# Entry
Amino acid sequence: MASKFVFGFGGGSAEGGAQDRNLLGGKGANLAEMASIGIDVPPGFTITTEVCTHFTANNAYPDSLKTEVIAALKTVEDIVGTKFGDNHNPLLVSVRSGARVSMPGMMDTVLNLGLNDVTVKGLEENSENPRFAWDSYRRFIQMYSDVVLGVSHYHFEDLIEMHKEDNGHIKDTDLEADDWKKLCGAFLAKVEEELGKPFPQDPYDQLWGAIGAVFASWGVDRAKTYRRLHAIPEGWGTAVNVQAMVFGNMGDSSATGVAFTRNPATGDNEYYGEYLINAQGEDVVAGIRTPQFLTEQARVEAGAELPSMEVTLPEVYKQLTDNFDLLEDHYREMQDIEFTVQKGKLWLLQTRTGKRTAKAALKIAIDMVEEGKITKEEALLRIEAKSLDQLLHPTLDPDAERTVLTRGLPASPGAASGKVYFTADEAERQAATGAEVILVRVETSPEDIHGMHAASDILTSRGGMTSHAAVVARGMGRTCVAGAGELDVNVAEGVMRVAGHEIKAGEIITLDGSSGEVMLGEVAHQEPELAGEFSVLMNWADEVRTMQVRTNAETPKDVRTAREFGAEGIGLCRTEHMFFDAERIVAVRQMILADDVEGREVALAKILPMQRGDFAEIFEIMKGLPVTIRLLDPPLHEFLPREEAEFATVAEGMNVSAAQLKRRANELHESNPMLGHRGCRLGISYPEIYEMQTRAIFEGAIEAQKKTGQAIVPEIMIPLVALKEELDFLKERIDNVAKQVFAEKNSEIEYFVGTMIELPRAAITAGHIAETAEFFSFGTNDLTQTALGVSRDDAQTFLSEYLRLHIIHEDPFVSLDFEGVGELIKMAVERGRKTRPDIKMGICGEHGGDPRSIKFCQGAGLDYVSCSPFRVPIARLAAAQAALENKKNQ
Amino acid sequence: MASKFVFGFGGGSAEGGAQDRNLLGGKGANLAEMASIGIDVPPGFTITTEVCTHFTANNAYPDSLKTEVIAALKTVEDIVGTKFGDNHNPLLVSVRSGARVSMPGMMDTVLNLGLNDVTVKGLEENSENPRFAWDSYRRFIQMYSDVVLGVSHYHFEDLIEMHKEDNGHIKDTDLEADDWKKLCGAFLAKVEEELGKPFPQDPYDQLWGAIGAVFASWGVDRAKTYRRLHAIPEGWGTAVNVQAMVFGNMGDSSATGVAFTRNPATGDNEYYGEYLINAQGEDVVAGIRTPQFLTEQARVEAGAELPSMEVTLPEVYKQLTDNFDLLEDHYREMQDIEFTVQKGKLWLLQTRTGKRTAKAALKIAIDMVEEGKITKEEALLRIEAKSLDQLLHPTLDPDAERTVLTRGLPASPGAASGKVYFTADEAERQAATGAEVILVRVETSPEDIHGMHAASDILTSRGGMTSHAAVVARGMGRTCVAGAGELDVNVAEGVMRVAGHEIKAGEIITLDGSSGEVMLGEVAHQEPELAGEFSVLMNWADEVRTMQVRTNAETPKDVRTAREFGAEGIGLCRTEHMFFDAERIVAVRQMILADDVEGREVALAKILPMQRGDFAEIFEIMKGLPVTIRLLDPPLHEFLPREEAEFATVAEGMNVSAAQLKRRANELHESNPMLGHRGCRLGISYPEIYEMQTRAIFEGAIEAQKKTGQAIVPEIMIPLVALKEELDFLKERIDNVAKQVFAEKNSEIEYFVGTMIELPRAAITAGHIAETAEFFSFGTNDLTQTALGVSRDDAQTFLSEYLRLHIIHEDPFVSLDFEGVGELIKMAVERGRKTRPDIKMGICGEHGGDPRSIKFCQGAGLDYVSCSPFRVPIARLAAAQAALENKKNQ
# Structure
């Protein structure tokens, strides 16, 4: 055990610092750190955690403690220039607990300790505010009696209520100095009645009582339970912080305020803050009085009348801004500061890293690198990758008024207003007239794709963060609010009802895809500005990251967007989306209705040239960058109508009977389509489909190679493989098509055949599968569905409940389930590499755009992540952060 | 290299035996083995596989080979008493290849070698059958020319066709001796024309030609490919077997026949066989002439007129039966024998283990133990566990006439006839009148349970071996044919159509649940007789097995059946089946429609006493044996109606509006119910459901404990756990209910809380889950569905295709997928035991009754398997076999 138990701080120095967290607790170490760099914090001292341990074991303090405390208090008196218990100008202190980590359950704070029947009058004089003095005293009695003496708080509340009733007052604010004075008397009497002895009037008795209460509170049941649940050792103990009270309400040379060292909204390098003359901290927060600007520039810009602090208290202002510079230099971060001026003397109460907008975070990080305060690597680590979303999409004007109708899941970011329509066809028609359209559906299906393309935004009443609507919207960069369960969508009537409102087709609503809010009418929004800082940051990220970033895209528009955002290839080109085009869907349906191979081949021959065109265009845009094309994945029934009413229309368009169409739809119906006849199972049952697609890929690649002069190396990806034998069967056919096409075109290209790893069995047998597969792409959506046995379309009902009950902490469809799905990925990586050391591996599930998951991918040793175009910048930054953290941990 | 290249056999001895398989090939070693124990096989010799290796390497024979072959042939001549190339009584030989393992692609056989223009006349004299002699010669020329000389067979076929045309013959059988004689001439001329030299007339030239052709055929492409695909080393080589030809068609002292050493239908210890006088082997098989019985007893029993061999050839018969005894003693197995008698001399051509019925297999195994021929362990290993099914269910009379309408999957064994009905309600009504009813559905759902209970048998047009219909039928011991895809079931019209037949409600069909056949009308069937042998075998099995066998059952009837079949506990009691009872379903639906916890609790309170009764009864029957009860598993919508028409009826019965009922059904609708809101997810969303069930279990157990005086230790099983946290949440609630009930009843019982391991994530995190779970039960149905990503309800479309294409070799829902699902099980066992070494583990999926899967469970170290009642005996035997094999491998 150390020989020193009390560490002082204040007056320009401290006996400890940030490094002494274990001994001084978090709060004590922070205060010491500020003091040690010359910041004027209200002086005080910390009784170490070792005393707590000693006290817990022996129910007594170390011998020297009393002496040390009294000496430390003396130092505080000297710095402040008042005396503890002085009748005219008493030193008041706060007593707080402070463990290594913040810990609810323990005694928190006693304020204004040192007040008694005599010193309260000193405070009255000094503050020239009798109401404040007596109110402070009664608060002290209440707090101290409750937490130190164990007199239940309801006694005091009863007394206040009776007093108000007797005197016709309604609110506490109605009470004046005399009222509080009377109540102080009543409180003291009540304490004596309850305890059989008077409330301690000696400030030293008060102090030791509070110190003992803090240490004792370490051992109460609530604190013990908390420690058990959070694995905090009993032996850590808590420190006690005793600190001088300062007051900003002691006249016109007193003030209180909050400030940021830079503008937290824009990131501009300018002091930013507000203050109030003759006020306490809570007055600033409460918003009863209008705060004044700190700087003259801000005041002028805002056209405010009340003078700035720069003008009213120029010397204090100078001191304050010197402190700002000191703190920012010391912590190398923008700081959020609380301060109080007591009779012209500045005290800093607290400093911490300041919260900021995404835009500000970006600017501050870049500026600080330029100012030489931090390195590029630090700048990269300081920006939350997810927050970049805010920079890439329009956002609602934060000051605009709004009527929130309901809230769904923030499925795809952005903000936009538009007319609601309830069918894809109507949405498309209205969009064609130039209207901004919001497509509202219970849930969307691949059939709605054309409507989703046409619409600006999408709103659904069912489905989660990875529902069809959400995935497609993110892919297209459309705003989407999904699973707004309170919404009652009536397609037949053309109306949606929510929160007592009835919104008809053609009426306007606004969606906020970042908060999930659905609002009535039009709400003003701001367009994103991608300042130069954005590309500077992206370049820095690219310098350090080791994983490639690809995109999940298939339309030329999305592919171009992704390229602009820096995608280095396509990790997932979903060919089924290409089948829903109005021209093609008829041929696709003919294929599905065909009775035999010949019939299917006739229909497929119609689709071939269009698919070839799709692929050629994508290859051309990507100019030789890798393109992974997934062959047809969804079950065939997704291409047939679902609604009773549609059968007749579709049948007529196809020149078949509605009955025939419906019979086929019934034949294809599945109980669990997610686990049904899809993916490579289709490719095996109907080899001609994959053969057509493969031919389109090879022909398109040869065409693009000629046009661009770049070597095109398509990566053909087989979905839903569970067995190596499935892949063998299909690879043989793909190789045969390649031979045929190369012979016909008299031109050969390189190509790879690989597989999705999206079923647990595929992950487990990856060693086997890698004998055939030339690359793996982890389809973490389906892998999550199957590993956890959860349908993402149906999960919202219970996953939200799970989150509420803390059974899970993250939606596994948003952020990878490391323990389950993650282990399957690691297993597959290890086993796959053992068989084929140079096998390329990436992730193309929704998780490819989630920073936490990207970090996992780095650790698992993947070569790339692939995500929707608008997430590419996020992924680039997250990959850089993952690489930096990985390096740090090595 | 050895110094001996030719090994002779025959004449009561042999130079090799069964142990010389590598040197002599499979065929050569078998012939040597028979000869060495004194069986008269047609004599011959084997040229070793070493010669093949030498020949392949050097394209020449070892120096001493010629001398050895000639010496061996001399020995054959001596034994047979004829000479190779003799003009009057020529020795004819066959030349065959024979590798270690049977291998297609190589030269197979040349028969009748030694015939030429001269010796054919000797055969003509000797056989007194000129047509046979010339037919044999022309066949020899054809075969030899094709496989040895490389003259294509179509030349000869053309000549035969031309000859028939010229002579007005239609079939080959129309040709007489002279025709064949003329054709022999034409054949020889054609060979000379093709080769530019004559067909070899010297028998020795013929012999060396054939030997060389066999060795050369080892190196042809087809054989090489086969070896590559089956991992057969090139270096093995093939042997050549040269063996004397014998003929059963040389007059009335010649004969040919097939025989079994015991009755293969009944297993009775009596000789059993058929023969034909003056005939060749193919005549017996062809069925042109009616074969005669071997034994007099069989002839008399059958009332046949043609005399038995015992009477016609008594001496040969005596020799033959001596050989039977010799062979059975030697091979310690019932033998299936081919023999030929040539002019009074008996030759055995082949012996092998005889195929038999399940009944015979059982009797023979038990008899052989009693006769001291084999051990109990051998007896256990000799009976195919699956075949016991045949003994436990009625079977169709094999001789009964039948009109097969179509064929589905043999989903649940047995045979029965009944009137078809198309709804569960109608099936129940008709069964109540005493009719035998077959319930015919497209597929069944839990709502059909009452109809399935009432019906004798079940037929569906959709679904696989583990569809709802199949699983429930097996559980109830009902015959079931599932997934008969050609069947067009029209419930509305009350008719099913198949193969041009239209079968209306009330008409009779017959199902064979062991073959999957659906037959028109009534087909006679036989009731099972469980002879004493059955229980003898079961007792032996119980002595050696180390895994327990439990049952999956919940109705008192099934529980009793399972106990009679020897179940040692209940491994899976599915509580949802108990909810469909007419009395209860209304309360269940009220619970589902309730808006809040209170409403649900009111409804659950109605179900509580019934559930308590269910459990008490099961505990009483099981008298203290372990009972694992799974809490509610299926999604709630399974309890609501599906068909439009039913809503009104059900709503009326419940006193709610059809609209309300339908709205709730729509709310509960799921895209993939298999991965939806079910299992423990329900238990977490609606804790009151599991609390009611848990209360019923504890109250029922205390009640049963009082009645039986046995300690009842219920095992409460939580379904569909993916996360330890789910189990924690529910276990806490179960423990609370236990405390309450124990306090109320003033009685405590022991109980266990465990979990299904039926999701990949649960298997992966089993170490974690075992911290809470006190037992694991592998739900391999769902584990297979999720690991492979295959819905068992939808899989039939592609799994049958996969089987056809050899992408899989077993339906993974019938027999465990070792590589994928099996690895998950092993992982869970290992991780679970690491955390909790004494954790009890078993399997309760359908695989628990599959012998191959049971063997896996033994290897994985499970404590028990659990299966449907009628599979309990199969599981007992399979578990015994697994234990024996496991011991052998240690």
In short: The CA atoms of residues 256 and 281 of chain B lie 6 Å apart. The mean pLDDT of chain B is 91. The longest helix of chain B spans residues 597-622. Chain B is about 45% helix and 15% strand.
